[in-house]
Design brief:
Blueprint: E1 5-7, E2 15-20, H1 29-38, H2 46-63, E3 70-71, H3 73-85, H4 91-101, E4 105-115, H5 118-129, E5 138-145, E6 152-161, E7 163-164, H6 167-170, E8 176-180, E9 187-191, E10 198-202, E11 209-215, E12 221-223, H7 243-257, E13 259-260, H8 277-283, E14 285-286, H9 288-301, E15 305-313, E16 318-326, E17 329-333, H10 348-351, E18 355-361, E19 366-369, E20 386-389, H11 397-404
Parallel strand pairs: 1-10, 2-4, 3-5, 7-8, 13-14
Antiparallel strand pairs: 4-6, 5-6, 8-9, 10-11, 11-12, 15-16, 15-18, 16-17, 18-19, 19-20
Helix pairs in contact: 2-5, 7-9, 8-9
The structure holds zinc ion.
């Protein structure tokens, strides 16, 4: 594995296009007269007008060869509540409020339109929609017949709404997402470069990694802790065996049964997939993170406090190994070297001076060093040195909002 640590390209500065069409609609006597004569304001309700405006936006984007916008019911409901409470404010206030409430929108275009006739309103909506951008994805429209039949008005909010982050979608060509950092709980846009096989996502606010992902053997991106499946192969241990000897037997079994094969041995970086313990055992081969996951998963299944460490070994670059905390000692288990002496307990102070971890992983999540630039001192466990991250589930806008409401 080659761990790649990416700072996110942070799209946090929202690009906002706003337009307020201040039509001189009250002086537009022709439309006004037409409206009064045909009693048009009485013929439509707001929902019907909204539907017709949506059709106008659809047509305008179709003409411009742009994808149609999807309705965003959550945004519409929020707008509706503001209108009912009379807290819309001016356009700038509205834009700022949308940004605050819906941080998953990275671009916005907002307009308010007024007209004495529906046909005129639709024409204005069509003209204005030329300003929406190709990347826009969603819309919310509120239209109402104004009081005392003065005509119609509407508010249109359109924008690019990022998808909530799902690792599985990385493999489907989506690379822009919205994520809420599980550590500082601030929302952010993130961009994952395509074709990265293992990725660490770092929060632009708190500057800490909050997700580590790797590609599995079926080409799907998964949180790295999901490769721990609680797997233990069928095995029988001598009665009354010590915990230390049990650890050494498991270690020896993995070292002797798994042949070290680099995923990318054929030169194809695309083959660098992570395997579960069951896959590695079945194949009888894997690279360092594969055999380490097998070993750690088995040890954890037998009740050991074990993790996979990912980092560097001397100048050789990226590497993975297993650490175990047992009876006050820390052991460092290499899983890829068939010549390693598995009868001698590998105390970290004896064998670990050249192993420098970036992170450790167990079933629930992963741990990152709080101060990665500090010299490595061999402490794999203390909370003062390590930050624990449980990435599942990464909070989405909807789940965070419902949590706030509790
Ligand atoms: Zn954060």
């Amino acid at each position: 594995m080659k761990p790649i640590y990416l700072s996110l390209s942070f799209l946090g500065t929202l690009v906002v296009a706003s337009a307020s069409f201040n039509f001189k609609w009250l002086t537009d006597s022709q439309h006004w007269m037409h409206s009064v004569i045909s009693n048009e304001a009485g013929s439509f309700n707001g929902r019907e007008v909204e539907g017709r405006i949506a059709t106008q936006l659809f047509s305008a984007r179709h003409v411009a060869d742009q994808k149609p916008l999807k309705p965003d019911p959550e945004l519409r409901e929020w707008l509706n509540q503001r209108i009912e409470k009379g807290t819309m404010g001016d356009l700038n206030t509205l834009i700022a409020s949308v940004q605050m409430q819906f941080p998953n929108y990275v671009r916005l275009a907002v307009c308010t339109l007024q007209s004495p006739s529906v046909e005129d309103l639709l024409q204005k909506a069509f003209e204005w929609s030329n300003q929406t951008e190709k990347c826009f994805t969603h819309q919310a429209i509120i239209a109402s017949a104004k009081a005392v039949r003065l005509g119609f008005e509407c508010v249109i909010v359109t924008g690019q709404r990022l998808r909530d982050f799902q690792p599985s979608e990385l493999a489907h060509g989506y690379d822009n997402f919205y994520i809420m950092c599980p550590l500082c709980r601030r929302g952010q846009a993130c961009e994952v470069p395509p074709l990265m096989r293992s990725v660490s996502l770092e929060c632009p606010h708190c500057r800490r990694p909050y997700a580590m992902l790797a590609v599995d053997t079926k080409g799907r991106y998964r949180h790295v802790n999901e490769f721990f499946t609680g797997y233990a192969p069928p095995a029988r241990f001598p009665a009354g065996i010590s915990r230390l000897n049990e650890m050494l037997i498991i270690w020896n079994s993995v070292v002797q049964s798994i042949r070290y094969v680099l995923d990318t041995a054929d030169g194809n970086e695309k083959n660098d997939a992570w395997q579960t313990a069951a896959e590695t055992r079945k194949l009888g081969s894997g690279d360092c993170e594969d055999s380490s996951i097998y070993l750690a998963d088995w040890l954890i299944a037998r009740g050991f406090d074990a993790r996979v460490a990912v980092g560097h070994y001397a100048e050789r670059g990226g590497h993975a190994w297993v650490i175990v905390q047992l009876e006050g000692s820390t052991y460092l288990l290499e899983s890829t070297n068939p010549d390693v002496n598995t009868s001698r307990p590998p105390l970290v102070e004896d064998v670990g001076s050249r192993h420098v971890p970036d992170c450790t992983i167990d079933r629930e999540g992963f741990y990152t060093r709080r101060n990665p630039s500090a010299p490595w001192d061999g402490d794999y466990w203390s909370q003062a040195k390590w930050q624990r991250v449980i990435p599942n589930p990464i909070k989405t806008v909807a789940s965070a909002a419902s949590e706030k409401g509790k």
